[in-house]
Amino acid sequence: MTILGIETSCDETSAAIIQGDKGQVVLKSNIIASSLALHATTGGVIPENAAREQVKYMLPTIREALEKAHIEMTDIDAIGVTYGPGLIGSLLVGVETAKTLSLVLNKPIVPVNHMVGHIYANFIDKSSDDIEFPAIALVISGGHTDLLLLKGHGELELVGGTRDDAAGEAFDKIGRLIGLPYPGGPAIEQAAKKGDPKRFRFPRPLIGSNELDFSFSGLKAAVLREVNNIRTMDEQTVNDIARSTQDAIIDVVVRKTMKAAAKFDVKSILLSGGVSANQALHDEFKAQSEGLGVKFFAPAKILCTDNAAMIASAAFYNYKPVPWQDITANPELYF
Ligand code: KG4
Ligand code: ZN
Fold first, then answer.
1. H/E element holding 111?
2. Res 42 pLDDT > 90
3. Which domains are seen in the chain, by residue range?
4. Euclidean distance between CA atoms 118 and 32, whole angstroms
């Protein structure tokens, strides 16, 4: 089955073609047009700017995805599209495009939850029995830090979430506090490489508690206090704060995920979402999963941040088409 994936929840416009067969997904093309450079000039995403960029990129992105996969529009069997959560103006561009294609081509649409999509980035180009259930999935992105128990495809249970800021949001806000460009995550990762891990020690909220929830607003407040106490913010200080911020976030998310893995006696740990592009986080997860004797999976770096391949993959493994008339973009969608 050939699926066209469409993803427009925030600032990336993406279209992808996957081939799904016998429980496996093969990636044929994955085109991502990002308006990040524009948002870097405003220090964050301004929703209306993002939506306008989506309109510009949507059709050329779909055309490029088809060309790269060497297929015509009529060759697709179904469309998978993100219908939430995200920015309403951005979401509408993808959803209405998918509905129009469905009507004109008479192809089924599978609406996909963006967060579930992130998890399914792990299933791309894997053999069908690589990932074993039950699995614990950490979705760690700009808007979410969620722990989900997966008993099988489509059998998801939310077992932990953030009480305030998401981990990616903490990276972005702290990045701004120390003068790094947007998005803060990749900038902090680079700065942290030259940072001294011992100069600052930031709090690790809820790390010792038995619950599986997260909280990052205290970390942001602690960094703000340091920043206010520092007279001159030189490059080394920025690097040192970046290092301790990254260490604190990694410590918390790894510890909570391992706790969840042990509690539910899982066979696999799945990392996903934009923050999982962080190499230090990835390495720590891999080491600790091995220590626990659990299989560890993380998407290829390009599939960690927003992309349509993961949406097409989720549509394949959770194939429940919905008539286009019944699909509505939902910015507040949760699990
Ligand atoms: O999944 P994503 O592309 O969009 C959302 O669904 O939110 O995630 C974006 C988030 C941003 O907060 C960004 O700072 C963070 O992922 N991020 C990173 C890295 N790359 C992206 N955080 C830490 N290290 C990175 N290398
Ligand atoms: Zn995302």
1. strand 109-113
2. no
3. 2-124+303-326 (3.30.420.40), 135-298 (3.30.420.40)
4. 15
CA quadruple 191, 197, 203, 206: dihedral sign: positive
Pocket of ligand 1 (CB under 6 A): 10, 141-143, 168, 171-172, 183-186, 189, 273-275, 277-278, 305-306
Q: Which atom of ligand 1 is nearest to the CA of 115?
A: 6
Amino acid present at 288: Q
Atom of ligand 1 nearest to the CA of 12: 3
In this predicted structure, what is the pLDDT of residue 185?
A: 97
| Amino acid (1-letter code) at residue 253 | V
Tens-digit pLDDT profile for residues 222-234: 999 999 999 889 9
119: Cβ contacts below 8 Å, ≥ 6 apart: 137, 139, 148, 150, 270, 272, 314
The reported pTM is 0.95
